[in-house]
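Whiteboard transcription, Tuesday session. T.W. wrote the structure tokens on the left side:
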């Protein structure tokens, strides 16, 4: 599959129009009990200023919580907030996430990073190939062009992030899991061994799992059971917002990227297109 800049731009123009329309004409409302989980991927340095603009926008409107607050949000009846809660998550464990961290640290924001141990453990010279083969086969060269855009965060990088209050979670062992093609043994390696490799490398306990690509394809019943048996939280690719003390094993997220202009960002924070996901989410719940 080749990256098509025309389709990419058209898609963004349409989303921007809907985003501005929803924000300024209809208005987007959230309840103070809601939790919004943003999911970013690559965060190249050249978009730091744009990312900071997004953070400033969010900071005024949401109660940005730390991964450590998830325990209270999901399991403690005393959770109260005067704004909807929001948490930052980053998938795939790219080195360039350190650029985003440098912005988040200005505002004392702690984030959650989902890791692929085989990416981290592959030889530095092979990491770009691993990334393109297993994680992101379609590259937009206007966005990702620096070595750090194709390199994994190292274990020492991650130890430093954890010492600063950030958290990490599992994102499968090799970012290669399609439920219908996977045996129970392979799914166990991807979901369960992923956790033990990270725990051993970092000397911490892992509670969070994040499914890859499209949860509806990467997680079937056997994978769902493995996740439930081994983790406390399952961050999915289903878009939406979350309700307190409900479904810590089906956490919906909103995909956003650091290079997105505000119209597309408003679209992602909106609720207009969510209805079309209800059927898929209910199918997943019934597995
Ligand atoms: Zn991923």
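and on the right, the sequence the group agreed on:
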């Amino acid at each position: 599959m080749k990256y098509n800049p025309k389709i990419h731009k058209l898609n963004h123009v349409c989303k921007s129009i809907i985003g501005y329309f929803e924000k300024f004409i209809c208005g987007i409302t959230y309840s103070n009990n809601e939790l919004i989980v943003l999911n970013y991927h690559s965060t190249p340095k050249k978009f730091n200023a744009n990312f900071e603009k997004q953070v400033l926008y969010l900071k005024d409107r949401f109660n940005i919580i730390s991964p450590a607050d998830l325990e209270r949000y999901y399991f403690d009846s005393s959770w109260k907030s005067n704004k909807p809660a929001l948490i930052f998550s980053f998938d795939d464990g790219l080195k360039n996430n350190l650029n985003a961290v440098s912005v988040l640290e200005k505002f004392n924001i702690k984030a959650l990073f989902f890791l692929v141990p085989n990416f981290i453990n592959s030889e530095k010279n092979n990491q770009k190939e691993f990334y393109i083969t297993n994680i992101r086969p379609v590259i937009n060269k206007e966005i990702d062009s620096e070595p750090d855009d194709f390199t994994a965060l190292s274990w020492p990088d991650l130890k430093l992030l954890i010492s600063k209050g950030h958290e990490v979670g599992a994102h499968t062992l090799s970012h290669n899991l399609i439920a219908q093609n996977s045996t129970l043994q392979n799914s166990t390696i991807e979901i369960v061994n992923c956790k033990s490799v990270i725990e051993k490398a970092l000397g911490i306990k892992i509670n969070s799992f994040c499914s890859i690509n499209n949860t509806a394809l990467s997680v079937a019943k056997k994978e769902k059971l493995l996740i439930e048996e081994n983790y406390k939280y399952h961050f999915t690719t289903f878009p939406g917002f979350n309700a307190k003390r409900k479904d810590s094993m089906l956490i919906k997220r909103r995909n956003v990227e650091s290079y997105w202009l505000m119209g597309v960002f408003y679209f992602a924070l909106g609720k207009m297109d969510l209805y079309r996901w209800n059927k898929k989410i209910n199918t997943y719940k019934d597995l």
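Someone added at the bottom: Residues 91-92, 135, 171, 175, 212 surround zinc ion (CB under 6 Å).
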